[in-house]
């Protein structure tokens, strides 16, 4: 366990709640078929444009000029129905726009009523045997509406219905490529990876036949598919897909356009994750150069690019360069008014830089940044606001690193008092300062009080997250250290360590450094208790892990 981690967040504390009237409906008939789309009167429509990005996610927003013409701003992209089918496309636009408007205005119930009315209408047609592109298009828009509402259960049901229809449709059907692309995106949200990739791939094949293999229109499904591949441990495939997007954009629009930013950033982040830091450095340097040429050295977007590059520099061990980039990025963002003073990204930059400064022995500089974060939060949100607790804990951690445990204790007790005033006593967020205070009291050799706090934190987390959750593992690890010094029963401590080991293996993998550290403690107690048969296989595994991590450190 590393209870002194600087980069802290109240992951389980949700202080803000989302609060998501009735419009009259009318029936709009279609000239080509008997389908009925239930709509509000036209004079109640608040807008008629609906960008594709609302359906497929921000990572897929690749727009601009291309050889085949400009992509449509409609939900169905560059396709268009001919003659009477234009009516259907326009009214689907109105339906989706109206649903989005209702959600934006907090009229979620009205949005559900509108979607349900349209579903019941199209269901009649599907049940009667009409299962063509019109039915698929309406079901697609209805599913997108429920996705916007966050109703994944209903989306999953609609995907099953839609899946059966599109599987029987010919690839030449108008709008099918866009529908398939939407389905790929929605299956991704449903965490059905293989289905998502399958629909993205079919959409891509249709578009390649229409526009060619080098068309910039392919970038949207390619970006969507790459994102799914990257999040499903298919990193090599994702990297190749991102590289294809970059090659297409370079050939069709040039290598210095702002359209390159999204695929370059996505590729760079994936390369960092895969440990290919030199490749990531080259990628983020390209991003920085594009933004600098487009907007000048003092633009906020340049600051964001510097932040990404700083993270890469840190990963490859160029600490001083990373520190300089962090500082420049923070200053540019502050001067350019690109972000608000308490913006989460700017706050994270300060904390990342503070942590790095502590690592290289420049703790006072780092602490000054942490104090700045705390003062900004206190100024904008008031004293004793829960949002200040992570900053107080970070400051306490900084003082602990400087062995000033008394000041750390003071700050942590303030943090705990704030949380006890604002959340119920069994709220898991309260365990955040509680466990840190237990560690600090342990360092002050006040073990009995430290044990009480650790036991309280453990009990709350077990009820909130389950006995095999990672937060419980962290509390158990802390408790083992305290109870070891209190000379508690060895067999009880061994059982606690076995629980920690099981949780860490599940969360971090059997070869992780966390598992190796817990194995050391486990082997120690097995040896102390004379349990040789259990000790030897774990000791062998520990030896293998030590050699592995020693080689990684040399590399």
Structure description:
This protein has 555 residues and is mainly alpha-helical. It is built from 23 helices and 2 strands. It has helices at 53-56, 85-104, 108-127, 133-149, 152-166, 176-189, 193-211, 219-231, 235-253, 261-273, 277-295, 300-315, 319-336, 344-359, 363-381, 389-401, 405-422, 431-443, 447-465, 470-485, 490-508, 513-528, 532-554; strands spanning 26-29, 36-39. A two-stranded antiparallel ribbon has the order 1-2. A hairpin with a 6-residue loop joins strand 1 and strand 2 (36-39). Helix 10 runs antiparallel to helix 11 (277-295). The model is unreliable at 1-74 and 78-84 (pLDDT under 50).
Uncertain spans: 1-74, 78-84
Task: Report, as a whole number of angstroms, the end-to-end distance.
Answer: 24 Å
Major beta sheet, specifics?
2 strands, antiparallel
By secondary-structure content and strand pairing, the structural class works out as: mainly alpha
Helix content: 55-70%
Shape estimate: globular
Percent range for β-strand residues: under 5%
């Amino acid at each position: 366990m590393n209870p002194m981690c600087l980069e802290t967040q109240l992951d389980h504390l949700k202080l803000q709640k989302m609060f998501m009237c009735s419009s009259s409906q009318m029936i709009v008939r279609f000239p080509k078929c008997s389908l009925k789309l239930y709509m509000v009167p036209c004079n109640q429509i608040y807008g008629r444009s609906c960008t594709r990005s609302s359906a497929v996610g921000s990572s897929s927003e690749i727009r601009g000029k291309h050889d085949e013409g400009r992509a449509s701003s409609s939900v169905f992209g560059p396709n268009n129905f001919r003659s009477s089918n234009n009516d259907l496309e326009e009214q689907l636009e109105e339906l989706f726009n109206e649903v989005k408007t209702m959600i934006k205005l907090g009229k979620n119930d009205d949005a559900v009523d509108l979607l349900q009315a349209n579903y019941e209408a199209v269901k009649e047609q599907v049940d009667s045997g009409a299962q063509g592109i019109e039915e698929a298009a309406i079901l697609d828009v209805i599913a997108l509406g429920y996705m916007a509402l966050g109703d994944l259960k209903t989306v999953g049901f609609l995907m099953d219905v839609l899946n059966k229809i599109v599987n029987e449709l010919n690839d030449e059907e108008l709008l099918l490529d866009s529908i398939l692309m939407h389905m790929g995106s929605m299956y991704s949200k449903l965490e059905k990876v293989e289905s998502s990739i399958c629909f993205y791939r079919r959409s891509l094949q249709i578009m390649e036949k229409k526009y060619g293999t080098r068309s910039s229109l392919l970038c949207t499904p390619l970006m969507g598919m790459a994102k799914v591949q990257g999040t499903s441990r298919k990193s090599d495939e994702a990297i190749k897909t991102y590289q294809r997007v970059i090659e297409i954009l370079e050939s069709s629009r040039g290598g210095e356009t702002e359209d390159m930013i999204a695929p370059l950033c996505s590729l760079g982040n994936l390369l960092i994750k895969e440990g290919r830091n030199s490749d990531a450095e080259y990628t983020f340097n390209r991003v920085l150069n594009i933004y600098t040429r487009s907007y000048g050295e003092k633009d906020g977007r340049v600051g964001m690019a510097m932040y990404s590059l700083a993270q890469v520099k840190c990963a490859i061990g160029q600490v001083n360069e990373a520190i300089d980039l962090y500082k420049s990025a923070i200053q540019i963002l502050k001067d350019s008014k690109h972000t608000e003073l308490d913006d989460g990204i700017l706050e994270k930059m300060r904390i990342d830089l503070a942590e790095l400064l502590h690592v290289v022995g420049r703790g006072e500089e780092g602490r000054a940044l942490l104090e700045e974060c705390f003062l900004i939060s206190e100024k904008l949100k008031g004293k004793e606001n829960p949002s200040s607790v992570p900053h107080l804990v970070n400051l306490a951690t900084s003082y602990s690193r400087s062995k000033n445990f008394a000041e750390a204790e003071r700050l942590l007790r303030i943090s705990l008092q704030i949380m006890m005033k604002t959340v119920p006593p069994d709220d898991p967020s309260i365990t955040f300062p509680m466990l840190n205070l237990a560690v600090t009291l342990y360092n002050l050799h006040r073990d009995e009080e430290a044990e009480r706090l650790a036991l309280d934190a453990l009990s709350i987390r077990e009820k909130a997250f389950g006995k095999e959750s990672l937060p419980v593992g962290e509390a158990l690890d802390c408790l083992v250290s305290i109870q070891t010094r209190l000379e508690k029963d060895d067999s009880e401590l061994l059982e606690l360590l076995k629980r920690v080991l099981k949780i860490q293996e599940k969360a971090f993998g059997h070869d992780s450094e966390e598992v190796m550290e817990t194995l050391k403690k486990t082997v120690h107690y097995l040896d102390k208790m004379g349990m040789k048969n259990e000790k030897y296989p774990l000791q062998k595994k520990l030896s293998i892990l030590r050699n592995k991590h020693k080689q990684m450190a040399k590399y």
